[in-house]
Amino acid sequence: MAIVSANNVTKTFSRPTRLFRRGNEDSVTAIDRLTLTIDQGEFLGLLGPNGAGKSTLIKMLTGILHPTSGDIQVAGWSAQHQRARLAMDLGIVFGQRTQLWWDLPLHESFTILRRMYRVSEDAYRTRLAELAALLDLREFWNVPVRQLSLGQRMRGELAAALLHAPTLLFLDEPTIGLDVEAKAAVRQFLRTLNQEKGTTIVLTAHDMNDVEELCRRIVVINHGRSAFDGTMEALHQRVGMPSRLVVTFNHSVDQLTNLPFDCQAYGNQITASFNRARQSPLAVIDGLRQWGEIIDIQMQEPPLDLVMRGLYQAVR
Amino acid sequence: MGDWIGVYKSVASATLRARLAYRWNFVLDLVFQIIMLIAELLVVVLIASAVHGIAGWSVYQIVFLFGLSSLSSGLYRVFASEFHGFDKYLVNGEFDSVLTRPAPALVVVSARSVDYEQAGMLVQGLAIVGYAAWRLHLWQIDGPILLAQILSGWISGGAIWLGIVIAFATLGFWTTRIDDLAPVVLYGPETAANYPLSIYPRAIQAIFYGILPVAFGGYIPARVILHKGLSPIWLLVSFGVGAATLAGAVGFWQIGVRRYTSTGS
Question: In whole angstroms, what is the distance from residue A267 CA to residue A209 CA?
Answer without folding.
Answer: 33
